[in-house]
């Protein structure tokens, strides 16, 4: 399994293309710049199978409908944020965007629980990692030894918890119970910034001292 990180939009939110040897791919968090994103997909000759969202803050969903419609694919999100795509007050764009608030149509499929899931040719684990937002999830690919952590865990930092629905103690618990228990060599693909590993964050992340 391969992946490509694509920073998009003014907040440089990381979108990821996760793809296999057959060139089928999952699109994770298409935050903005649909033209740039589709150009890279075509350059890599990939066939998108679905959009999966780690959460529904505005900087992670801006290109959802354009990408969904172009490729005729489904959008997946956790049920706790099923209303966020359509509501700028919930996804934050009402308060943070200088221009038009961001809206997308409802998701096609909902994650209702954590555990193994298969989408097309992709088999991975959905882990509930709330705290940054109520429906934040992470996508773990154990065989390929990486996890898409959204805005839960960053290199040397953690997600902000001062937005509606955020909870600092809950986020720390999510990281401790769901992420730090993974093998230390697991590569962490965050929603912003460079990649890291579970081992590196256990050793040096100042927000996780004591774990």
From TrEMBL:
Family matches, as InterPro entries: MBL_Glyoxalase_II, Metallo-B-lactamas, RibonucZ/Hydroxyglut_hydro
Keyword Metal-binding attached: yes
Keywords: Hydrolase, Metal-binding, Zinc
Domain (Metallo-beta-lactamase): residue spans on this chain: 12-192
Cofactor(s) demanded: Zn(2+)
Taxonomy, superkingdom: Bacteria
Molecular functions (GO terms): hydrolase activity; metal ion binding
Pfam families according to UniProt: Lactamase_B (PF00753)
Signal peptide: none
Record PANTHER family: HYDROXYACYLGLUTATHIONE HYDROLASE GLOC
Name assigned to this protein: Metallo-beta-lactamase domain-containing protein
Species of origin: Mesobacillus subterraneus
Upper taxonomic lineage: Bacteria, Bacillati, Bacillota, Bacilli, Bacillales
């Amino acid at each position: 399994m391969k992946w490509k990180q694509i920073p998009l939009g003014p907040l440089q939110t990381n979108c990821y293309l996760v793809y296999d040897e057959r060139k089928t791919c999952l699109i994770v968090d298409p935050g903005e710049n649909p033209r740039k994103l589709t150009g890279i997909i075509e350059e890599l000759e990939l066939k998108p199978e679905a959009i999966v969202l780690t959460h529904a803050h505005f900087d992670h969903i801006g290109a959802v409908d354009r990408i969904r419609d172009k490729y005729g694919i489904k959008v997946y999100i956790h049920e706790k944020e099923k209303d966020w795509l359509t509501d700028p007050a919930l996804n934050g764009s009402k308060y943070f965007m200088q221009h038009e608030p961001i809206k997308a149509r409802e998701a096609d499929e909902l994650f209702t629980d954590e555990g193994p899931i298969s989408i097309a040719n992709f088999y991975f684990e959905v882990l509930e990692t709330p705290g940054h937002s109520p429906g934040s999830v992470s996508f773990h690919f154990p065989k390929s030894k990486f996890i898409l952590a959204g805005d839960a865990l960053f290199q040397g930092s953690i997600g902000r918890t001062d937005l509606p629905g955020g909870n600092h103690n809950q986020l720390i618990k999510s990281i401790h119970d769901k992420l730090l228990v993974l093998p230390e060599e697991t590569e962490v693909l965050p929603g912003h910034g460079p990649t890291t590993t579970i081992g590196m964050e256990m050793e040096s992340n100042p927000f996780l001292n004591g774990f």
